[in-house]
Design goal:
CATH topology: Ribosomal Protein L22, Chain A
Number of helices: 5
Helix content: 25-40%
Largest sheet: 4 strands, mixed
Shape: globular
Strand order of the largest sheet: 4-5-1-9
Radius of gyration: 17 Å
CATH class: Alpha Beta
CATH architecture: Alpha-Beta Complex
Structural class: alpha+beta
Number of strands: 9
Strand content: 15-25%
Length: 201
Amino acid sequence: MTVAASLWMADVDGMADEDVLDWLSASEMARYRRFVRAQRQRQFVAGRILLRMALGPLLGVAPRDIGIEDRPGAAPLLKAPVPRGPAPGFSIAHSGRWVACAVSAQTALGLDIEMRDPRRDLAALAAQAFDADEMAQWMALDEARRVVGFYSLWSGKEARFKLGETAQAHRVDLPHEELSVVLCSALPLTAVPRIKLVTLP
């Protein structure tokens, strides 16, 4: 069986400010209003638009015809169209000006992206987030690879957490100039997806 995934990415700064909220369902709109920071609102709206854009070709429907229900503390739920078989797997991630979404008709997914910022106190963050094995793996890296290595480990943890199957996750790292991009899948992917850069409405 072919197990495929596609990964879509967009620059939030390129999204128009007007006429984008009508993409959101009532539950998504309620969550949007709870965000205090304007950047987080933009990331949220961009993520949900990008999700619909990525699911559209997979489901054979127009992106605006896709209904999404927001669920506090859980991944969003596809409400329309009702899948005839298993629901597609999808995952949304954001960092800084970037938002990304991965979708698959065959497998559950967990995606994380992180802006690589060498100015952050990576040692303090690692001490809080990494277990003993991860810390040892990070500390074994030479200085030149320490920043990239930190964000790779961090993104891998987040992607596995989103997938919800830490023991069985199949991991793929995708290249990007600014970001650490890690995609985990419940089933091994037949091919590594390429990042599809798109322009948001």
